[in-house]
Amino acid sequence: MTLRSVILGSGSALPKRRVDNAELAERVDTTDEWIVERTGIRSRYIADDSETTGTLATDAARAALAMAGIEATDIGLIVLATATPDQTFPSTATKVQAALGINDCIAFDVHAVCTGFLYALTVADSMIRSGSATTALVIGSETFSRILDWEDRGTCVLFGDGAGAIVLGAEEGERGILASKLHADGRHNDLLFVDGGPSTTGTVGKLRMKGREVFRHAVVNLAEVMGEVLALAGLATADVDWVVPHQANARILDATARKLGLAPEKVVVTVDRHANTSAASVPLAFDTAVRDGRIKRGQIVVLEAMGGGFTWGGAVLRY
Ligand code: UT7
Hints:
Peroxisomal Thiolase, Chain A, domain 1; 4-stranded mixed sheet; binds oxa(dethia)-CoA
C-alpha cells in the first residue's frame, strides 16, 4: 500500500466587511460593469483593524480541525502560505500555533504569492510521506487589502482578504494527494511585484501588476501544469470531477478550461464573491465547494494556481 496525505477536513474564514463594486466605484474611477465584464468579480471582503492574516488563518484552521475531528494538539506540522504576514518575523504559522494552544510542532511560512497554497501543500505532503509528521495543517491566508494602492484602479478592484485551511493526515490506500508539480521562473519578477520590502526600502510597499501580460502567461502555464499533474497521476481530463483553480479572473478560468477541453460546470468559481485572495483562494474555494456539497468523498480534484515570480503549480487528489 502507498502512504498518502489525505485531506481530513477543511475550513475557511472571511473578514466581516463585504465590499461590492458599487462601493469601490465611489473611491476610484471604475464601474461595476467594467469590473464584472473584465474579471467576473462582484464583491470582496476587506479586513478591519482587528482582523489580520494570523487571525483569519486561525479561524480557518479551527474550522478545518472541527471538520476533521482532530484536536489541535495532535497537529505535528503547520505550513502557512502568505505574502502578507502579520510581521516580517516571526512567521504567521507560529502565531497560529500559539493561538491554537499547540506548544510543540514544526511551524513555518511559505512564500510563493498566489501559488503559495500549492507550494505549502506539496511541502507538507513530502514531509508527511517522509515521516516528519503524521498530521498537518496547511493554510493559505492573506490580507492583500493592506498592500494595495487604493488609487490604482487597475489593481485595487481585483483583490480581497481571506483564509482557507486543510488538515492532512497520513493514510495508506487509494485516496489522498496523487501527484503535484511546482514551477517558478524569476525572469518575470517585474510583471507582478510589491515595490517595497525590509531589505530594500524598509517599507511594506504596494502591489504593482502588468495585468495583461500576467493574464497571457497565466492561461498557458495553468493549462500546461494541469496536463502535467494529470499525466503524473496517470489520469485523463475525463477522469476529473472538479478543478479548484486560483481565483484571479473568471476569464482566465474559462480560457484554461477551454484549453484543457474541460466542461465549465466542473470548475469551482468563487472569484465573483471573494475576488483574488492570493494564497487563500484555492483552499477557500475548495472549502466552499466541500461545504455546499459539490466536492464529495472519492472524487478526483485538481488544484492549480499561478502568481508573482512567476510561480505556478498544480496538484491532483482523490478526496
Ligand atoms: O493572482 C495573480 C495572477 N493575476 C492575474 O491573473 C491577473 C491577470 N490579469 C487580469 O486579470 C486582467 O489583465 C485585468 C483584469 C487586470 C485587466 O483586464 P484587461 O482586459 O487586460 O484590461 P487592460 O489592463 O488591458 O485595460 C483596459 C482598459 C485600460 O484603458 P485604455 O488604456 O484601454 O484606455 C485601463 O486603463 O481598462 C482600463 N481599466 C479600467 N477601467 C475601469 C483598468 N482598470 C480599470 C477599472 N475600471 N478598474
